[in-house]
Amino acid sequence: MGRRRCGAGRAIAAAFAASLLAACASAPGAPAVAPLEPLARRPVFPPDDADQAARDAARASLAGDVEAANAARARLDAIDAARKKSGETPTGLAPFAQDATNAALPSAREVREATRTLAKRRDLDPALRARLDEELADDPLELAQDRINEAHLIAFGTTFNAFVEPMGRSMTNPMAAVPGLVRSVIGLALKQHLDDELSLQERQALAHWKRFVAMHPDAPETPALREKIDAYQDDWLETQRERQLRSARKQLDDRQAGGAYLAATRALHVAPEDPEALRLRAEAERQLVAARAARTLSLEAAPTTGADDDRARALALEMLRRDGDPGGTAKRILDAPPRGAADDAREQALRDVARYALATSQGEAGQETEMWEALAALADEGPERSAMSRHAASLIAGGDTNPYRAFQASRTQDTARSVGWLLFGNLSQGARDVDLPRPVEWLLEVPTTLEVATGFPNRLIRYPWLDDPREGRAAAAYARRYLARNPQGERANEVRDWLADYEESRGNFAGALEIASEGGAAPASLATLREQAAEQLLGAAQEEKRRDARQSFLRHVAADYPDTDAGRRAGTLARTQALEASPQRIRISRGYLQENRVVAGSDALGIRPELIDDAPGNGELHPDGVVLAGGNVLEFRYLAASGDEDDPPVVKRQRVSPERMARIVSTLEETARRNALMDNEAVFVADADRDRFFEQARLGLLDEPDLRATAESSYAFRSMREQYGLVRGRESILPVDLVLQGSFPSLGLGAFPRVRLPKKTQDAFLYQ
Questions:
Q1: Nearest to residue 421, comparing CAs of 463, 470, 472, 451?
Q2: Do 299 and 273 form a contact (C-beta atoms < 8 A)?
Q3: pTM of the predicted structure, to 2 decimals
Q4: CA–CA gap between residue 367 and residue 369 (Å, rounded)
Q5: What is the gyration radius of the CA atoms in the chain, in angstroms?
Q6: How far is it, in rounded angstroms, from Cα 55 to Cα 47?
Q7: Contact at 8 Å (CB) between 494 and 520?
Q8: What DSSP string runs through 696-710?
Q9: Strand pairing report for 633-638 and 716-717
Q10: What's the rounded Cα separation, in Å, for the pair 316 and 568?
Q11: CA-CA-CA-CA dihedral for 284, 286, 290, 293, to nearest 10
């Protein structure tokens, strides 16, 4: 009986242990086995006829022997035809051999024609087809024609949209169609007035035509292209002339005579003897001469005659001495009765200098109000009555010398800008500058007054949440300047409180804490600001790409804010990252491995399939995937025991052979470049540090990792789903967009078609 009970107990224990093991096996986490499969050894086959033909094609192409290359390519075609006939898989080498043969042709025209013929084959590799399409799309004549077509489409589409849009918006309010059409007509007229003589797309076409003529001077298309080039070149010179004249007029209006002179001179280089350019340059030269004369006059000083006044000498010495008292000397001069000198002008000038010196000494003593009142009284007398009036007015008006006044003026300007927008909308800054006489510009804005009036309720609702990035910037700069000059000044507390509130409102809690600490804010307020500042600095540290700068940031936060939660987390992160630091951080995400099985397969990474099968029970990789951690070290990131992808991953490192690392980086780079060829959205971004590491890995030179932080790459290979989501947006094949639009101010509803205008090409900035 006892034995029977004992056996039953052992059975129960065994069953419990088995269930426990099963539960452990189904839990996420790092697997017990190695994550990598043995490195696949590729068998060595003796070269067959196809290999020898490919060798001959490559050798003949490199030697420039087109006849021999064509013969080798014909042999490959024959081999593929025989394989198809016998049901075998073709080699696929013939198109590549033909592409190499085409490169050996003597002229670019022949290469392009041969490439166009090759692109018609149906057995092309997708990556090869994409590259051939790119080469064919680089034809200067086709590019030029595309840009001309785009210019025509923009001209038509702009006009079409300008008339259709106001008509479509007036579905619920037909009376609004008339002013809308008037605004469209005015807008088109202004656009025609402001547009360049040669549009951006036409300038691009001109450049492509010039390139074709330079490459093929004897081509049959060249004579006709030369005529087009001459006509377009004249328009381009006219465009440059108009741009420079417009700039010269604008700078003359802004009293920038030097810039106006330079712009007018440039216009004369394009259009010599142009009357308008000559007139503008003459006017700019006249203003420059007058400004130089005034500057020279202000630097002159009349020589003194006779003995110097002892009072003036004493005042000058007191003002120059570091420990002098110019205020006391100035008071004695002003309190004493005027001397009965024959030169009353010199006596008055001395008393004005004494008043100026007394005012500045009051400012140095902290009596700001008295100083500015005295300087204002001196400035109000005018240069005719007082020799120091101009100097006093300069001190009052200067932002460097009177930052508090500039601070107040900037705040007033910000308020005026906001209130002006509330009352007058787009007209708050005046009529648009369209290079016409100012009365005409205001006349053209008349149709917009109705929209400004009806939009007032909408602006009134939006006003409390209006966020103008310009607001407060100038005032904050002058506030800091005032505090730097007068940290204990009469207005210091007022300016400091405003500046702290401003910095806090824009999320700069570190700056707000610094300012509030200087002003002796309440401890509770300072504690809150310390928490917010620490969080702000911690976030900035985590966004830093360079390892050394990130560590420095984290240590700074931990050392300066040890009593905050963010400071303690910064210390933990600094220690963790110091332990986990590696020379490289090139990441291959799990999604990328799933999308590109060739990278995960035995010819490259060789990772076990169960690690990327979306089954957490067998040791699934974390979405972070695998990291190339420098040298020949791979860092595997597994799901945490909780199975939650948001939890920090379990990190395991493994050193691999140089051969495996070379295969990994070679396959990874080849796959990324192939994907970029076949899909425009699969961008393979340039990264010099990544490319250097890949080159060293291919050469087997990773035994001594580059430990410099500046050599670390944080490039991430991510899947298309990770980059663009579940569904990638695609542009419609229709040439128009159907727009449904509502207007809150007028409570209107409209629907209309809009011609989709072509986007600028990536090189458009070169032709601006």
A1: 463
A2: no
A3: 0.67
A4: 6
A5: 39
A6: 10
A7: no
A8: HHHTT--SS----GG
A9: unpaired
A10: 59
A11: 110
Residue 505 falls inside a structural domain = no
Write the DSSP symbol of residue 336. S
Q: Is 594 helix (H, G, I), strand (E, B) or coil?
A: helix
Residue 177 per-residue DSSP state: H
3-state secondary structure of 622: strand
Structural domains counted in the chain: 3
DSSP character at residue 606: -
Q: Per the domain annotation, does 275 fall within a domain?
A: no
Other C-beta atoms closer than 10 Å to the C-beta of 203 total 20
Q: Which long-range contacts (CB under 8 A, 24 or more apart) does 22-26 make?
A: 25/617, 25/618, 26/617
Is 650 within 8 Å of 640 (Cβ atoms)?
A: yes
Q: CA separation (Å) from 624 to 175, 590, 592, 628, 675?
A: 59, 6, 10, 12, 21
Q: Which amino acid is at 117?
A: T
Is the distance from CB of 654 to CB of 621 less than 8 angstroms?
A: no
State the burial class of residue 547 (Cβ atoms within 10 Å of its Cβ: 0-12, 13-18, 19+): buried
Residues with Cβ within 8 Å of residue 649, at least 6 apart in sequence = 622, 624, 637, 638, 639, 640
Neighbours of 91 (CB within 10 A): 18
Q: Which two tokens stand for residue 265?
A: 């001179």
Residue-level pLDDT at 617: 78
> Could you identify the residue written with the tokens 């008043």?
355
202 CB contacts (<8 Å, ≥6 apart)? 147, 148, 151, 232, 235
Chain segment 294-313, per-residue pLDDT in tens = 777 656 655 554 445 788 88
Q: Where are the alpha helices (DSSP H) in 254-274?
A: 257-270
Q: Which residues contact 256 (CB under 8 A, 6 or more apart)?
A: none
The answer as to whether 739 is a domain residue is: no
- Which residue is associated with the tokens 């204002």? 376
Beta-carbon contacts of residue 112 (< 8 Å; ≥ 6 apart)? 135, 136, 139
Q: What are phi and psi of 517, to 5 degrees?
A: -65, -35
CA angle 144, 150, 152 (to 5 degrees): 105
Domain enclosing residue 367, as ranges: 311-397
Please answer whether residues 632 and 655 qualify as being in contact, where contact means their C-beta atoms are separated by less than 8 angstroms.
yes
Answer yes or no: is 667 within a domain. Answer: yes
Residue 322: its pLDDT value, please? 74
Q: What SS3 state is found at 500?
A: helix
Instruction: Report residues of the chain scoring pLDDT below 50.
Output: 1-26, 305-307, 342
Q: Mapping DSSP to helix (H, G, I), strand (E, B) and coil, where does residue 655 land?
A: strand
Q: Tell me how far apart the alpha carbons of residues 455 and 446 are, in angstroms, rounded to a whole number.
A: 15
Adjacent-strand bridge partners of 750: 741
Residue type, 476: A
Q: What's the Cα-to-Cα distance from 270 to each of 199, 205, 230, 251, rounded to whole Å?
A: 18, 21, 15, 19
Q: Residue 133 is which amino acid?
A: D
Residues 668/604, Cβ–Cβ less than 8 Å: yes
Q: Which of 691, 706, 721 is the C-terminal boundary of a domain?
A: 706
Spatial contact of 334 and 351, defined as CB atoms under 8 Å apart? yes
Q: Pull the structure tokens for residue 608.
A: 């076990």
Residues in the chain: 768
> What is the number of other CB atoms lying within 10 angstroms of the CB of residue 371?
20
Question: For residues 625 and 587, is the Cβ–Cβ distance under 8 A?
Answer: yes
Residue 492 contacts residue 483 (beta carbons within 8 Å)? yes
Contact indicator for 619, 638 with CB cutoff of 8 Å: yes
From 706, 735, 753, give the residue that closes a domain: 706
